[in-house]
Target: UPF0145 protein BIV57_20140
Amino acid sequence: MTNISDFGGAHTTSDGVLVVTTNEAPGYRIDEVLGEVFGLTVRSRHVGSQIGAGLKSLVGGELKGLTKTLVQSRNEAMGRLIEQAQALGANAVLAMRFDVTDQESAGGTEVCAYGTAARVSKN
Model:
């Protein structure tokens, strides 16, 4: 049986930071914009996994090992984004986005989560 947390993730507000992909958060008022924040990670897979992924790509189908690595990378980048926002005193990140870049020369993938740190309050 597949563990859904291996192949997807969602940020919760349990850490006190609301993260939204929109420019505004419905039901909230933007009190102060604190500036851009980001979280970055670069990950690589070991040679055995790369060989296995190469063989799998010959026959088609999902590369589950690579999918799990990307989910872990996104979660790590998101955690770093939230830490940076909290360090600025933010309780929200607006317009959050992910950027993913293949670093072929380094044999890894760069994942960056970024957005705008803000202080918000309920309407």
Remarks:
- The first helix runs from residue 47 to 59.
- The helical segments are 47-59, 64-87.
